Amino acid sequence: MCPNSCVAYTGPFAKLTNCPKCGGPCYDTHTGKPRQHFYTIPLAPYLQVLRQETERLLGKPIEEYYDFVCRKEYLEAVLNGTIKNKDFVVMMSLDGAQLYQMKQSDCWIYIWVILDIEPGTRYKKKYVIPGSVIPGPNKPKNTDSFLFPGLAHISAVQKEGL
């Protein structure tokens, strides 16, 4: 990734030698190694473990329609077979975090929330899964480039049938 947090050298940026935003080099000129890293945590291993707990996590039948699973779009996707019984529905959330009191946001984190889990459980620490940690010093200028590895992983997992 660019040391100024401009872009991650993933997807369409993977073969660049300089940052398209600030012009800085992607690699250290002496060592040839990337100047900065960010970390992506694969979602599939978590989903494989959750699949073992599915019945317990789904909870009792819905008595009051107030959650996303009660939405027309979701129900239609289930009825027409787009979403199957063993599928997971996930939501991604991205936000900056200020790690030091006297410093602007210097870290961006995205998480996965498993929406199939009953509402009283889905936001518990155990089920909010980290997706990536993007270090600063600045806000990412091309957020999609940082999301690319996680979304590419999800795409590959979907093709394999998880």
Describe the protein.
The protein is α+β, with helices and mostly antiparallel strands and 162 residues long. It has one domain (37-160). 27% of the residues lie in helices and 16% in strands. The protein is built from 5 helices and 4 strands. Strands 1-4-3-2 form a 4-stranded antiparallel β-sheet, with helices on one face. The longest helix has 18 residues, at 143-160. The two termini are 29 Å apart.
Short description:
This protein is α+β, with helices and mostly antiparallel strands and 162 residues long. The protein has helices spanning 44-52, 54-58, 72-79, 119-122, 143-160; strands at 39-40, 90-97, 107-114, 128-135. 27% of the residues lie in helices and 16% in strands.
**Overall pLDDT metric:** 85
Structural class: alpha+beta
Q: Hey, roughly how much beta strand do the residues contain? A: 15-25%
Number of strands: 4
Identify the quaternary structure here.
single chain
Strand order of the largest sheet: 1-4-3-2
Unreliable segments of 5+ consecutive residues: none
**Helical residues, percent:** 25-40%
Apparent shape: elongated
What's the story with the biggest beta sheet? 4 strands, antiparallel
Terminal CA distance reads 29 Å
Series of H and E elements: EHHHEEHEH
Number of helices: 5
> What is the rounded Rg?
19 Å
Number of domains: 1
